[in-house]
Amino acid sequence: MSPILLTGPAVEPVSLDEAKASLRVEHDDDDQLISALIASARMQIEGQGKIALISQNWRMMFDCWPHHGRIAVRPAPLRALNAARVYDFHGEPQPVDTQAFVPDLGVSVLAFMPWTVPVPGRIAAGIELDVTVGFGNAATDVPEPLRQAIRLLVTHWYENRGIVAAADKSVVLPATVSALIASYRVLSL
């Protein structure tokens, strides 16, 4: 199932002042627009890369535990497992000890021994895992290539405002932005 965002980032990876400097905008007339473009660029890059830039809390839900005992956490990178629950036959959540999981932060995986966790009693979405993901709590924790990708995308959108026909190339993510996020993109197998 798709993860659910519980708590979004407290700050953006690029400040309004940084974006305005990159755009060479000295007036305050477009501050609201530029702020919206920053948030949109962050979300676009996070979606393209299957990553979270600033710390966020997400809930992952599963029908059953994987037999191999490894759960890939998306979006990445994994920072912490906050809570684990299994729903019993009556639909009541039962806590699962988070110590049963070994977080592999390098590859954003939760490893566990399948025979040590309780089987859910609910047939669908019987397992919930609450995780914290992201590079950190501050903008400076985000790798500079990803911050630059946001600045470039904000600039691209700011300079190409308006409704764009589907055949127009400005609908496509600029190649420089794609190149900057390529090494951080989480691939699915």
Report on this model:
The chain has 189 residues and is of the alpha+beta class. The chain folds into 2 domains: 15-53 and 141-182, Hypothetical protein yqbg (Orthogonal Bundle), CATH 1.10.3230; 56-133, no CATH class. It has 4 helices and 8 strands; from the N terminus they run βααβββββββαα. The strands form 2 sheets. A 5-stranded antiparallel beta sheet has the order 1-2-8-4-5, with no helix packed on it. A 3-stranded antiparallel beta sheet has the order 3-7-6, with no helix packed on it. A hairpin with a 5-residue loop joins strand 4 and strand 5 (93-95). The longest helix has 19 residues, at 31-49. The radius of gyration is 20 Å and the shape is elongated. The two termini are 16 Å apart.
Strand order of the largest sheet: 1-2-8-4-5
Dominant shape = elongated
Low-confidence stretches: none
- Give the termini separation: 16 Å
Radius of gyration: 20 Å
> What is the CATH level 1 assignment of the largest domain?
Mainly Alpha
Structural class: alpha+beta
Q: Can you tell me the CATH topology of the largest domain? A: Hypothetical protein yqbg
Mean pLDDT reading? 93
CATH architecture tag of the largest domain:
Orthogonal Bundle
Helical fraction equals: 25-40%
According to DSSP, the number of beta strands is 8
Q: What is the tally of helical segments?
A: 4
Main beta sheet:
5 strands, antiparallel
Which quaternary structure do these chains form? single chain
Estimate the strand proportion. Answer: 15-25%
Q: Write down the secondary-structure element order.
A: EHHEEEEEEEHH
